[in-house]
Please model this.
Amino acid sequence: MKKIFFLGLGCCIVLAMASCKSSESAYKKAYEKAKQQELAEAEISEVAEVTPVTVPVQKEEPKVETVEAKPVERQEDVELVGDGTLHNFSVVCGSFGLKVNAEKVRDGLVADGYSAMVVFNPQIAMYRVIASSFDDRESAVAFREQFKRRYPDNRDFQESWLLIK
Model:
């Protein structure tokens, strides 16, 4: 009887080992499949990196930063702030949203000997600093050019323009 028992036990062990082997191979198959997918993805990314992409090249001219030219003359309805006389043509040398800033520029121009004044445009809520005001366009243009030559390093003054009343 012991022989039959040991023989049965041996058969059970063999069957148990055989079943473990088959489950091991299922894990092995899943691992190999995942590894193949990983390798395939790596090859695709390598191919994408190595494969040159040809894009038609269009010759572009070098980009030059352009500054929009502000109008040299402009007609606006303005109100005089403070003292002074506003004529038909005025040379505007600064525009500000705050009255205090406009008055600082005006005070500097008055110290330099100009009859500067501040005007307000209520339509756009801007304070304009006028360096001088004239009855005719020719005098105003000549003054603007002389004014720009006197302050070559002041960018705001270089953009001076004529305000037509």
